[in-house]
Amino acid sequence: MTQDPRLLGRRALLGAASATAALAVTTARAQDAEPEEPAAQPAQGARPGEYLITGAHLLTMDDKLGEIANGAVHVRDGAIVAVGADIQAPGAERIEARGAVVMPGFVDTHWHLWATLARGLGSKGGFDKAMAALAQKFQPQDNVLGVRLSMAEAVHAGITTVCNYAHNIGSPEAARAEWQAMRESGIRGRFYHGHPSDLPKDKLMDLPGLEALAKENKGDGLVSLGVAARGPDRSLAEIWRREWAAARDLDLPISTHVAYSKAVANSGAIKAMADGSFLGPDVQLIHLTQASDDDLRRVADGGSPVGLCPWTEMQVGFGLPPVARIQKQGLPVGLGVDNLALAGNADAFAMMKLTADLAAAVAGEQGTLTERQVLEWATIGGARSIGMEEQIGSLTPGKRADLIMVRMDAVNTAPASRPDITLVRAAQPANVSLVMIEGRIHKRGGRLIGHDTGKLLRDAGAAFSRLQKEAGI
């Protein structure tokens, strides 16, 4: 390698590209009556339309545009054309958003999609042993079901970008199946190519398979490629260094778990990465619950972003996410669903509320992390942490049209005198009435579009029952 390894991934990072029927959003072309709900169709195949969303309270998450009461957003050809208080767009389909907030979609920065098929397994004793047995029985079609179920729930929850930390890749076929399932979903994201869950510390991950996928990754789709890499705590030095070097040779961003236990934190893993120039904007660090202040300074100096997953971090005993200390260091932060076999459901609203409250609880002072700040972590901050802030994360003209509408006139959200606080403190996935990704509508009137949820749930249930029997759980 001839380049500074801290900088090798920057180009890839920067260039990678229910509410009730009574509360359903009223849509109409010009002044026509509300149309019938469109039939389900594959979201990836639907052409982006031209829309004018009007009457909304806009939380743009753009520092220059700020909040706009009674604002409008013009979307055309998958992009945000204009944002403001008075916008004209003759011929565009009008979506009336009175009583709602329109904002950028949530950006998930860490999610093991395959494990969603085992939802609820984490509530029983012996989770690690049971999950390990289950993981070994997964076939590529099971990985696909985990991805599809996760993506459907992401849309329901208003999550428009999903980072899949795929650490149960038992074969090249499984990797390709997850990658393809993500691409077919029409949802933006990143596939972090991982390894078999039981891969020995002295064995390399499938680097030829990774290289083959990298050659196919033309940057022309909604899903980019990365590497879910083991660090110093999970493999031998010569192994993890070779895997990271391969990722950087391919100019792929890296994501890794680190400092999630006292033993791992005390092993000097972060210091080893810092000393070897293995930190940088291309290396996302997940958890850091037991990281020392010295290690957090090393991370800040190295320029690595952080992914926090508060629900699972507390449930499995990783410790309290060091929210206030991370904030103090000024680290780029994103939030992650992590593992629905543990966390239960994908709820960015609950994640935001918990994150803000954790900061206050540890600091002993209310308002340590404001609702506005944690809302930024869930949107533009998350986009920044994975190198996509030039494309998504705010309602900025020129960015891609990834946005959501959240009802503020529901029984659990009204009255909403401060929409930003209400979103963090009171809203739920069921309040998300409209989801748009790349200008395509994936949820409308509180209903998913392009997902045969009945068949998906039947297939997922049958697959999990089979896996349980095969694993002896």
From TrEMBL:
Positions of the Amidohydrolase-related domain: 101-441
Provenance organism: Pseudoroseomonas ludipueritiae
A Pfam match: Amidohydro_1
Record-stated family: Belongs to the metallo-dependent hydrolases superfamily. ATZ/TRZ family.
Signal peptide span: 1-30
Name of the protein in question: Amidohydrolase family protein
InterPro entries the record matches: Amidohydro-rel, Metal-dep_hydrolase_composite, Metal_Hydrolase, MTA/SAH_deaminase, TAT_signal
Record flagged with keyword Signal: yes
